[in-house]
Amino acid sequence: MRGPATVLGILALGFVCAGVLLALAPHKPPKPVEPPKPAAPPPKWYMYRGGPELLGVGEGGLPAKPAQRWVFKTDGPVQGSPAIVDGRVFFGSMDNRVYAVNLADGKELWRFETENGIQSSPLVLKGTVYIGSADHFLYALDAATGTLKWKYETGEKILGAPNWTESADGKGVWILAGSYDNSMHCIDAETGKGVWTFQTGNYINGSPAVSNGQTVFGGCDGILHVISLKDGTEAAGIPVGSYIAGSAALSGGRAYFGHYGNRFVCFDIEKGAEVWSYGESGFPFFSSPAITQDRVIFGGRDKNVHCVERATGKPLWTFATQQKVDSSPVVCGSRLVVGSDDGNLYILNVADGTKVWSYGLGRSITSSPAVGGGLIVVGSDDGDVFCFGESH
Fold it and tell me: How many whole angstroms separate alpha carbon 245 and alpha carbon 353?
């Protein structure tokens, strides 16, 4: 019979042996802890084409196979581009209303009635929504409640999206809006009072681009107008020879735009000279371009999405849809998203134009997509607004 001392000795020897065995056993390093993925920036697309230069380029990327998150129904075609700010989506409809919905689930937050249809895209700036209507007014609405702050009357309908610039004294903001009264209007953002007006020879259908103290826009007078933002005087009027129905994009002192003369062109603004011209299909260009470091991408009424070399206009690729492409493409990273009158929303590779994904919305897509945080929001001519994002 063993005594207590013997038992304790045996146990101690066992612990020692176990320690030796553990020390001799192969040592496995601890599994590394993966750092948390950085949070995606909050979605923000506060105006048509994403910024004052109208470049059509968004932050982040686009999912390869987006899933529908929600759909919101209005009573008229939604042809303008939505805006995404502070977790809300803002857009107008041809049912005469401006809407704000929750980005997370598409639930309506407020609506505002105008006297006619709305094709204009909203500009959301410092808590205010600026948007034009075919009832001749530019409206300023409180972004949180939809309450009217002011409205500014032009002589005819406003179809293009408003843009903005700092006031001449740097202490405020001015809003720019073109109208079918043949004029570009500059309005004080706070008071709604007119600052200056520039008269052209015909309708202004597109949105004015803003860069380097100037605004640049075309119209049905066939002239690319370059206007000083300070006082509304014309720095240059560049004859193009055909209607400019869409909006120009500005980058590096050059304007990129299409027109009804069946050409897409690049102009040097300071020289007033054409740098290059593209288009052999015999169809006009209404779509506004997306401008990357080396490419220009735009839709055509020849049913194609076109990509050309930015420096020369040399064709790089085309992607064929089944109907005209008046929707303006948006580039995010290595992919772009664009709609077509064939009812499909497409995601393409920027490098070669190959299709990554498409989704049938049911009716023509004139609306240009709004993007941010991996989300896509776009309207359709049947009155629906769709939101797509990464599938869960």
Answer: 25
Confidence of residue 1 (pLDDT cuts 50, 70, 90): very low
Maximal C-alpha separation, the chain:
118
Cβ neighbors of 304 (< 8 A, separation 6 or more) are 281, 318, 319, 320, 321, 325
Between CA 292 and CA 297 the distance in angstroms is 8
Contact status, residue 274 vs residue 263, Cβ threshold 8 Å = no
Strands 330-332 and 57-58 turn out to be: parallel
Closest C-alpha among 257, 240, 163 to residue 200: 240
Helix (H, G, I), strand (E, B) or coil at 63: coil
> Distances in Å between the alpha carbon of 77 and those of 93, 97, 115, 367, 384?
6, 11, 16, 9, 7
Q: What's the pLDDT tens digit per position in 209-222?
A: 999 999 999 999 99
Rounded to whole angstroms, how far apart are CA atoms 337 and 389? 13
| pLDDT score for 2 | 47
pLDDT band at 273; cut points 50, 70, 90: very high
Inter-residue contact 226 to 216 (CB < 8 Å): yes
CA distance from start to end of the chain: 68
| pLDDT for res 30 | 53
Contacts by residues 180-183 (CB-CB < 8 Å, ≥ 24 positions apart): 180/155, 180/156, 180/204, 180/205, 181/136, 181/154, 181/155, 181/156, 182/156, 182/219, 182/221, 183/154, 183/155
Give the whole-angstrom CA distance, residue 261 versus residue 242: 5
The residue that leads in pLDDT, 17 or 355, is 355
